[in-house]
Amino acid sequence: MIIDPKTINTKDLHQFLLAIVAPRPIAFVSSMDAKGNVNLAPFSFFNCFSSNPPIVVFSANRRVADNTTKDTLANVIETGECVINAVSYPIVRQMALCSIDYPNGVNEFEKSGLTPIASTIVKPPRVKECLAQLECKVTQIIPLGEDGGAGNLVICEVVQIHVDESIIDERNRIDPDKIDLMGRMGRLYYARASGDAVYTIHQPVQPIPIGFDGLPEHFIKSKILTANDLGALASVEKMPEADELIAFAKEENIKAILDAEDYNEKLQHHAHQLLIEDNKLEAFMTMMLTTVQ
After folding, report:
1. What is the spatial distance between Cα 92 and Cα 192, in angstroms, rounded to a whole number?
2. Sign of the CA dihedral 157, 94, 176, 202?
3. Which of 13, 38, 43, 114 could form a disulfide with 58 if both were Cys (CB 3.0 to 4.6 A apart)?
């Protein structure tokens, strides 16, 4: 399927983009107009773009249906301040209530049952139920177009960060399971970034790994190893030495596999299991033995 953005209608293009660029973090933005009226709305065109200075950006797009803009955009243009609140699973349905286009002047805090609390630097309130909040000064707003669906990039400098102590681990880092963040996908779909959905990939940047082109040919031709398995094997620093391989082949469990009639297939299955356990070195040596009679 090939899609030409210039010929497809905006509504359909919007959904294809949202489904491909996903999951996206959600900026739950609280803002305030010059008269003190508060607004709370979620935006999934959002990310962090710099640590020094600390810059986050969200886009308040023009509505596709009628080409109007949202209260949040008007507020940040008027006051230059906002708070970006993190959306965790326990409040995702309350957040969804804030995505409704209420009439001007409606307080989404009241509609959603969420609690406004005072910020320390900016005027817009934070969301008490959110486990992390970023107080922001808006440094620049960049319109990307004038038609429905066009974005308005709201560039925000983070001037204060609030993190609930309950989500901090023993290394003074945020525990992904405890913050339990939600991400936005296409249509009605969301992603929950905790539990089995979260896993680690250990890939040191130094020393330089052997790479995919450094793998023996029979590794790549394996019918059992997956592309992710091969990627993990390609991340090792160097090929094992001959004496390492000889010693490894003498280990009791490996010797038992080598003595089997279908040892070649069993070795590959064993290597696959070792990679699931993130044991790349032993998996690599196991695959090397598939060429040893």
Report:
1. 10
2. negative
3. 43
Nearby residues of 269 by Cβ (< 8 Å), 6 or more positions away: 224
> What domains appear along the chain, each with residue ranges and CATH number?
10-197 (2.30.110.10), 212-291 (no CATH)
- pLDDT tens-digit series, residues 99-141: 999 998 899 999 999 999 999 999 999 999 999 999 999 999 9
Bond prior to 240 in cis (omega within 30° of 0): no
Q: How far is CA 149 from CA 9, 146, 153, 268, in A?
A: 11, 9, 12, 50
Determine how many CB atoms are found less than 10 A away from the CB of residue 188.
6
Angle between helical axes of 280-288 and 242-249 (0-180°, round to 10): 90
Annotate 211-228 with b (16+ C-beta within 10 A) or e (fewer).
Answer: eeeebeeebeebeebeee
What 8-state DSSP symbol labels residue 88?
A: B
- Determine contact, residues 168/131, Cβ cutoff 8 Å: no
Q: Round to whole Å and give the CA distance between 24 and 269.
A: 35
